[in-house]
């Protein structure tokens, strides 16, 4: 883009993710100066005055408010980041779309497929751009894996394994936050981690056609926590117990759509929030007739690769992140220098702002959120009935182009 464009930014909720969004916006001109996009941090909203004050004094927002509607009504705001808890997502996203504001929202966009589709409908009515926080897509190793699949270097894809295992709720003393309440969060680990796994599978390999799933609540009760007084990371000794209403663990067998190089592929997807050991054990393995790749988020900057069936040297080769892999060269000058989670959000911010400004549209959108929500709903139905479920139509534009 040739001319510099200033984009007014509004932020809703100044928690950890809200702070990360703000820093990502501020980094875009430094990492991508040629785009000519200059985010201007206009106004931040939160229900706690201390966080509003932080947004102004530390993050650099010009002003703040306790009412998110003021962010949406501000004529100087062009784009909005929605980083509030799940149960507020649909309300805020629909309001943003109706106000004509492009928005970047964390997943799950809605607590259910129907709620996510209602957001998509509001977006379509108002013609706004969206971005959804499927941040693991942007890891250079993942983009390299996608390129290898798309170029046919792995041959026909035979099977895929995705496992998103975490231990953030492994301690029974972990507080009963909104995340364990079905009305507030929707599903549990299906929405939180499984949705990331199915999005990665769809992004790298191709859309999923059908699913057979099982779920379990491993810790059925947790100590209660007053709303707004802490998070699920807080440990409470001897408190009053409350019921966990959504699943801690999910496993699924999936079949990919009959298209492209994955037309006969079968996959397994597993997700847990109560695993002992893995903290962010998010892994993707793709096996083909001519080669295979493996990626582990806890080793973000590495990709395990094997190409060819008759190599003299057997087994996987560890390929370290380097220029030429996705957006790696924007952050590090040479191989072996590590990127981190925050860098993935900068890439996400760049893709969102570029789409808003009329440039290339490579951002994940509300359509991708609908596709993930359809798979989550199908998994829930399958777990309840024991039957295979169709996963619904692929997201618009999701069909792989090889």
Automatic annotation (TrEMBL):
Boundaries of every Gfo/Idh/MocA-like oxidoreductase N-terminal domain copy: 8-134
Superkingdom classification of source: Bacteria
InterPro entries: Gfo/Idh/MocA-like_OxRdtase_N (IPR000683), Gfo/Idh/MocA_oxidrdct_glycsds (IPR050463), GFO_IDH_MocA-like_dom (IPR055170), NAD(P)-bd_dom_sf (IPR036291)
GO molecular function annotations of the record: nucleotide binding; oxidoreductase activity
Keywords: NAD, Oxidoreductase
Domain GFO/IDH/MocA-like oxidoreductase: residue ranges: 143-293
PANTHER family: BCDNA.GH03377
Protein name, UniProt field: Gfo/Idh/MocA family oxidoreductase
Annotated source species: Glutamicibacter halophytocola
């Amino acid at each position: 883009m040739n001319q510099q464009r200033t984009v007014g930014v509004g932020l809703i909720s100044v928690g950890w993710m809200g702070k990360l969004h703000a820093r990502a916006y501020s980094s875009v001109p430094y990492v991508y100066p040629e785009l000519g996009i200059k985010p201007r941090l206009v106004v931040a909203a939160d229900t706690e005055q201390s966080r509003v004050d932080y947004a102004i004094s530390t993050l650099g927002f010009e002003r703040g408010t306790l009412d998110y509607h003021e962010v949406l009504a501000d004529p100087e705001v062009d784009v909005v980041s929605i980083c509030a808890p799940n149960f507020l997502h649909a309300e805020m996203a629909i309001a943003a779309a109706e106000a004509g504001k492009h928005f970047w929202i964390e997943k799950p966009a809605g607590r259910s497929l129907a709620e996510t589709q209602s957001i998509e409908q509001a977006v379509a009515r108002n013609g706004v751009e969206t971005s959804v926080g499927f941040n693991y897509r942007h890891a250079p190793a993942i983009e390299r894996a996608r390129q290898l699949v798309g170029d046919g270097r792995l041959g026909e894809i035979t099977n895929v394994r995705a496992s998103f295992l975490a231990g953030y709720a492994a301690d029974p003393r972990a507080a009963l936050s909104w995340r364990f309440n079905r009305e507030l969060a929707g599903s549990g680990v299906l929405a939180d981690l499984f949705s990331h796994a199915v999005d990665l599978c769809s992004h790298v390999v191709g859309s999923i056609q059908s699913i057979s799933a099982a779920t379990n609540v491993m810790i059925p009760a947790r100590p209660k926590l007053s709303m707004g007084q802490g998070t699920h990371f807080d440990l409470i000794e001897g408190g009053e117990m409350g019921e966990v209403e959504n699943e801690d663990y999910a496993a699924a067998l999936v079949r990919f759509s009959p298209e492209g190089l994955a037309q006969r592929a079968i996959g397994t997807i597993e997700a847990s929030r109560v695993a002992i050991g893995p903290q962010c054990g998010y892994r993707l393995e793709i096996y083909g007739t001519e080669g295979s790749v493996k990626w582990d988020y806890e080793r973000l900057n590495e990709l395990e690769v094997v190409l060819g069936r008759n190599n003299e040297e057997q087994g996987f080769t560890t390929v370290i992140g380097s220029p030429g892999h996705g957006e790696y060269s924007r952050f590090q000058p040479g191989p072996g220098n590590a990127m981190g989670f925050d860098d993935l959000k900068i890439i996400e911010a760049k893709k969102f702002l570029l789409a808003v400004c009329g440039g290339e549209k490579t951002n994940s959108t509300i359509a991708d959120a609908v596709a993930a929500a359809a798979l989550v709903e199908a998994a829930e139905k399958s777990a309840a009935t024991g039957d295979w479920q169709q996963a619904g139509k692929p997201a618009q534009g999701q069909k792989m182009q090889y």
